[in-house]
Amino acid sequence: MKAAYRRVLVKLSGERLAGDGGFGISPTVIGGLARDVRDVHELGIQVCLVIGGGNVIRGIQAASQGLDRTSADYMGMLASVINAVALQDALESEGLATRVLTALEITAVAEPYIRRRAERHLEKGRVVVFAGGTGNPYFSTDTAAALRAAELGCEIVLMAKQGVDGVYDADPKENPKARRYDALSFDEAISKNLRVMDQTALALCRENDMPIVVFDGAVPGNLQQVASGRKVGTLVGGR
Question: Which CATH number does the domain 7-236 belong to among 3.40.1160.10, 3.30.450.20, 3.40.30.10, 3.40.50.300?
């Protein structure tokens, strides 16, 4: 396979790390994910990742159960740092030099996010994992992914979903007749309120002409297929 891009951002949900357990971090899952990232890196692509914390706590769900929304969101950001450190360990086990940069200052475990520092790490061939979301409550890790991709001049955002192979016009788990899109414009995705990523993140990608591929990241090899330009999943905003 040949690389289709010079630099990509991979968006991972925290739930992906939990595997079938639904909570915590599965060594088998995170090991397989690290191997997928290694295969993409070996194509000569600069790889950065944004990871959520939903396998530990989801801020918006915790807030709906009575926790203060701001506190809940900060807890979710801290959960994403836990996941990022675990992912760093798995990636380094695959021989990949990896740095964790976080929007929250936790210098004992990660570097603070500085755009030029992130650029330098990528240019040196290191994998960079962004944690802590944007560092602000009320913004999702989807928005963090769109923001970091735009800041660092990534060519595409790769949305690795858990068991979902693209964007549908309805929930395929509830409606067996749901239709999967091969491609969508940003305007279609926003106006139809399709579950690509949250609306703020979508608008940011549209403003920066940043295409998105939504695919099933749980299938081994899919990440490499997408990074090599193969038609996998749904392309949003591309040409």
Answer: 3.40.1160.10
